[in-house]
Amino acid sequence: MLVQSPEELEGRLNGQRQVLALLLAWLRSRGEGYNELLSLMQDLCTSDQQEDPGAVPTAAFAIEGARVTEIRQILEEAESGVHGFEGTGSKTG
Q1: What are the tens digits of pLDDT across the range 38-61?
Q2: Taking the domains of the chain in order of start, what are their residue ranges?
Q3: How far from 68 is each of 14, 30, 41, 52, CA to CA, in Å?
Q4: Which residues contact 83 (CB under 8 A, 6 or more apart)?
């Protein structure tokens, strides 16, 4: 098992987030299948709300919350158009 410092782990996760957002922004610029993928990703953010409201939060809830937050941040970054794919519409690549 590879042991990483919190800073290394955060850097790696940030890099992965940027790559995913870049790919989503590129897909969005092409207009092919983006809405379907967006819908699938948004489905990942929904909660079934079945947990006991009186239960003490656990690490599992914290992990789930972080997962949903990360997905939403990736979607927001892809939607923001910061990756320079806005209006390119090129079907070649």
Answers
A1: 788 778 777 554 555 556 668 888
A2: 7-43+58-80
A3: 15, 26, 10, 19
A4: 21, 22, 25, 26
Q: Is 90 left (phi over 0), alpha (psi -120 to 50) or beta?
A: beta
Query: How far apart (Å, rounded) are the C-alpha atoms in residues 48 and 77?
Result: 25
Instruction: Tell me which residues of the chain have a pLDDT lower than 50.
Output: 49, 87-93
Distances (CA, A) of 14 to 9, 10, 33, 64, 87: 9, 6, 25, 18, 26
User: Phi and psi of 31, rounded to 5°?
Assistant: 75, 5
Cβ-count burial of 28 within 10 angstroms (0-12 exposed, 13-18 middle, 19+ buried)? buried
Whole-prediction pTM value? 0.63
How far is Cα 87 from Cα 27, in angstroms, rounded to an integer? 12
